[in-house]
Write a structure and sequence with these properties.
With 356 residues, the chain is α+β, with helices and mostly antiparallel strands. It folds into two domains: 2-194, MHC class I-like antigen recognition-like (Murine Class I Major Histocompatibility Complex, H2-DB, Chain A, domain 1, 2-Layer Sandwich), CATH 3.30.500.10; 201-296, Sandwich (Immunoglobulin-like). 37% of the residues lie in helices and 30% in strands. Strand 5 and strand 6 form a beta hairpin. The longest helix is centred in the C-terminal third of the chain and has 47 residues, at 301-347. It is elongated, with a radius of gyration of 37 Å. 22% of the residues are buried.
């Protein structure tokens, strides 16, 4: 489950220039089989930094491990505070189920507690969102410090929370005095990881001779990249289909772009190329459309197999002919030897005749 959540988080922005964000995702899910009742995920720029519940803790990134090692007491105190928040979260959301027609204690609550920081302008922005059973439920407008119902089922609760100043005063204090300072601390440890540039490995793939040729790039970072087909140096759109940007397990990304090649004469293939551009890198990765470079499930190996098969069959045929000739010659020789022996026996007097 953690792996699935991590992949979903990676689909968000990776390193976004001078703007950064930190999120604390808290899940309250009583009664869900094979899941802890309460869990917390800390996310920096879409990358899962750590996950923990009341039984386990996973520190995912190397920079996060370094932070924990150098700030052990502060980190342990923060974790205990987050785990203790379970009771408050349960109490705050106890009426969510009455508005969503769920049995009491069976709702799944998600709270997203986050903040943004623009390093260049020093502008900050905080937000708190609640989800209920997979649906957006309620958000905090930090400009007016009022709760907004994101779902008609939350309107009554939003009115109740707006009438109680304690709900947004606590939220305001936490955003300004906890989230933003922690974001800046995490950036000191993780910024080099977020700002790295990694070019991809690029492959040409084709399922069959009639299929489109896929230009596939994988292992690049960040996700601010473009890939397209060009003809004579100019980007083309006809016969081109773009695939989705997808995350890899190691935090890098992959993407593909497909080109229909059936209508392209073989002599014109050299005019086409796949171009990959990574934000912040001057040089593009260029891959020429070349039949010999294509990896396929049904490529020239099929012809090679046929050639080898024909050669093997021909060789076996020759061997069989030689064996047949040899056997025939052997049989003929035996037959001649037999005939000669019979002739000799008929021309040579028997012992009885000789004695007479």
């Amino acid at each position: 489950m953690i792996k699935v959540i991590t992949l979903l988080l990676l689909l968000q922005n990776a390193a976004s220039g001078e703007k950064y964000y930190l999120e604390s995702n808290r899940f309250l899910r009583p009664g869900v089989p094979n899941f802890p009742e309460y869990a917390v995920m800390i996310v920096l720029q879409g990358f899962l930094a750590t996950y923990y519940d009341e039984n386990v803790m996973h520190v995912k990134q190397d920079w996060m491990k370094e932070y924990v090692k150098e700030n052990t007491k502060e980190w342990e105190s923060s974790v205990q505070a987050c785990l203790a928040y379970k009771d408050l979260l349960r109490d705050q959301t106890k009426n969510f189920n009455t508005q969503s027609n769920q049995s009491e204690g069976k709702e799944i609550i998600q709270q997203i507690f986050g903040c943004d920081w623009d390093e260049e302008t020093n502008n900050t922005f905080g937000y708190i969102k609640f989800g209920n059973n997979g649906e957006d439920f309620m958000t905090l407008d930090t400009k007016t410090w009022t709760w907004i119902a994101a779902n008609p089922k939350a309107e009554v609760i939003a009115e109740e929370w707006n009438a109680n100043k304690a709900f947004y005063e606590i939220a305001k204090y936490s955003l300004q005095n906890k989230c933003l300072p922690l974001l800046k601390v995490f950036l000191r440890y993780g910024k080099s990881f977020l700002s790295r540039k990694v070019l991809p490995s690029v492959f040409l793939l084709q399922k069959s001779p009639s299929s489109p040729v896929t230009c596939h790039a994988t292992g690049f970072f960040p996700n601010k990249a473009m890939m397209f087909w060009r003809k004579d140096g100019e980007e083309i759109h006809e016969g081109v289909e773009h695939g989705d940007l997808l995350p890899n397990d190691d935090g890098s990304f992959q993407m593909s772009v497909h080109l229909e090649v059936l209508a392209i004469p073989p002599e014109d293939w050299g005019r086409y190329e796949c171009a990959f551009e990574l934000s912040g890198m001057k040089n593009d990765v260029i891959t020429k459309l070349d039949q010999d470079s294509i990896r396929s499930n049904n490529p020239k190996t099929e012809g090679l197999f046929m050639t080898i098969s024909i050669a093997v069959i021909a060789t076996m045929g020759c061997v069989i002919v030689i064996i047949i000739v040899a056997l025939s010659f052997t049989a003929f020789k035996k037959r001649n030897v037999t005939n000669i022996s019979d002739t000799d026996r008929s021309s040579t007097p028997s012992s009885e005749t000789a004695s007479l």
